Inverse folding.
């Protein structure tokens, strides 16, 4: 640790009454006590050190609104405290639990707890009524407290790579959620109550064990990005056809054999990317090709690594840049060569 450099920065911040203090990558084992004398400090960066414990005085600093503690060795937080802090980032630490006092941080907007060892959350978390962004991916969570439903202002929630086998019901009443990611868990079912999340714009359910989506999924009409790759879908869920604002739809790495005979052009007027690669699809519906050639913005359809044995005729008078990928299928060589020559501007068959 460069003690002299640390104290020099603290003294400089005190002298010039600065709002920001950067003590990242200083080899610190503990938070210097002299920091508490910085009455104007608002932003404190302590990332990439060896800090094990956060002292009480940090959360008593009246002006401090943002603290970055990523990439340390923090094992626990103070057992009691009250703070007006708005941003806390504790990614990549050694936390196993959160103390009940976390509910005292009623001004908190952003709480980042990625890559820790957290197994459960306290009920007091529901007191964070101003919380907007919560990141809990890469922990050991299998459930959420019932009080989670009280996070009325929550806008973004990340729960990737945890141990959820059941979709937490308490999430479905967080009506202001616009971003939800719960990929890389063990989900088999999505409840009908998900239909209440009408403000969702991005939903990531990839890398689970899903085979179906509930009918109420059709209520998510504001969805723009939907990630369903690496599940066990055998068909494209019917409820998806009601999501007219979709721009990105990923269904790759499933077990889909047949594509529905939908009027894709009218159902998905904003879609620019459709990934159906690595499934078991045998034929491409004519209506999907009609959708591909419609006069609209760029669109990419990925049908690579399927079981396609033939292609419908694709017209040459396409007015906009488009791309359809059909590589690694069962197409006859003559058809591959013909299509690659005639439509190389927008058809990939490699």
């Amino acid at each position: 640790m460069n003690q002299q450099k640390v104290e020099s920065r603290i003294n400089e911040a005190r002298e010039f009454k600065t709002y920001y203090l950067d003590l990242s990558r200083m080899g610190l084992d503990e938070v210097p006590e002299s920091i508490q004398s910085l009455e104007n400090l608002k932003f404190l960066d302590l990332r990439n050190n060896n800090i094990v414990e956060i002292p009480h005085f940090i959360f008593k600093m009246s002006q401090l609104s943002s603290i970055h503690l990523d990439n340390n060795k923090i094992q626990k937080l103070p057992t009691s405290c009250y703070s007006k802090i708005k941003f806390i980032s504790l990614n990549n630490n050694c936390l196993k639990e959160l103390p009940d006092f976390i509910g005292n941080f009623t001004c908190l907007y952003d709480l980042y707890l990625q890559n820790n060892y957290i197994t459960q959350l306290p009920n007091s978390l529901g007191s964070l009524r101003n919380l907007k962004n919560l990141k809990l991916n890469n922990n050991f969570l299998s459930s959420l407290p019932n009080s989670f439903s009280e996070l009325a202002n929550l806008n973004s929630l990340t729960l990737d790579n945890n141990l959820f086998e059941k979709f937490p019901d308490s999430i479905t009443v967080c009506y202001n959620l616009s971003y939800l990611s719960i990929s890389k868990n063990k989900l088999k079912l999505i409840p009908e109550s998900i239909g209440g999340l009408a403000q969702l714009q991005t939903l990531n359910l990839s890398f689970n064990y899903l085979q179906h989506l509930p009918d109420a999924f059709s209520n998510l009409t504001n969805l723009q990005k939907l990630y369903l790759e690496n599940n066990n879908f055998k068909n494209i869920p019917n409820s998806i056809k009601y999501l007219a604002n979709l721009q990105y739809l990923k269904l790759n790495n499933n077990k889909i054999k047949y594509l529905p005979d939908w009027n894709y052009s009218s159902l998905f007027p904003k879609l620019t990317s459709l990934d159906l690669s690595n499934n078991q699809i045998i034929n491409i519906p004519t209506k999907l090709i009609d959708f591909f050639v419609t006069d609209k913005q760029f669109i990419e359809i990925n049908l690579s690594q399927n079981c396609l044995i033939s292609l419908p005729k694709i017209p040459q008078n396409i007015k906009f840049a488009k791309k359809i990928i059909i590589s690694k299928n069962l197409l006859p060589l003559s058809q591959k060569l013909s299509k690659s020559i005639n439509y190389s501007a927008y058809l990939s068959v490699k």
Notes: Residues 323 and 346 are 4 Å apart (CA to CA). The chain has a mean pLDDT of 90. Residues 1-68 form one domain. The longest helix spans residues 3-16.
